């Protein structure tokens, strides 16, 4: 028995009808041609009856798996925070914040290190197109 002489199942008829409906929605078929082809698909008994109903239409693109969203920070937050805390504690323990000549020393501005994780967070949000800290 050849492939064209094999009997088709209801599921195979429905699959062809669904494919024709997609082509109707995409504008490749008009309503009259769709009705005629679906009528032939529903009454098909063999594979030969279904052959030709989709041959002049482009094949459906393979479904792609959903894109995996990469979450989290570009750098782990815990090490960044530990680094900032270490620098702050080391600076506070090692200096009083002023140089011997009375000018502010480099450790007087340790709080500026908080700008590192804030900058990373803000830049990441801008790159994703969400805007700065809006939560959109």
Description:
The protein starts with 9 loop residues before the first helix and ends in a 9-residue tail after the last helix. The protein has helices spanning 10-25, 31-42, 47-50, 77-94, 115-127. The radius of gyration is 33 Å and the shape is rod-shaped. The protein has 136 residues and is mostly helical. It folds into two domains: 3-50, no CATH class; 77-127. 46% of the residues lie in helices and 0% in strands.
Strand content: under 5%
DSSP helical segment count: 5
Q: Detail the poorly predicted runs.
A: none
Number of strands: 0
The percentage helix is 40-55%
Main sheet characteristics? none
User: Structural class, please?
Assistant: mainly alpha
Shape: rod-shaped
What is the H/E string? HHHHH
SSE diagram, text form:
Layout: H1 10-25, H2 31-42, H3 47-50, H4 77-94, H5 115-127
Helix pairs in contact: 1-2
Quick recap:
The protein is mainly alpha-helical. The chain contains 5 helices and no strands.
Features:
mainly alpha, single chain, 136 residues, 2 domains
């Amino acid at each position: 028995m050849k492939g064209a002489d094999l009997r088709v199942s209801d599921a195979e008829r429905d699959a062809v009808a669904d494919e024709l409906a997609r082509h109707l929605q995409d504008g490749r078929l008009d309503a009259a041609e769709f009705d005629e082809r679906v009528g032939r698909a529903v009454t098909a008994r063999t594979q030969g009856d279904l052959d030709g109903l989709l041959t002049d239409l482009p094949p459906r693109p393979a479904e792609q798996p959903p894109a995996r969203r990469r979450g989290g920070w570009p750098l782990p937050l815990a090490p960044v925070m530990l680094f900032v805390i270490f620098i702050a504690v080391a600076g506070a323990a090692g200096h009083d914040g002023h140089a011997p000549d009375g000018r502010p020393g480099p450790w007087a501005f340790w709080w500026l290190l908080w700008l590192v994780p804030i900058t990373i967070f803000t830049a990441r949000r801008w790159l994703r197109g969400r805007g700065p800290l809006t939560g959109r």
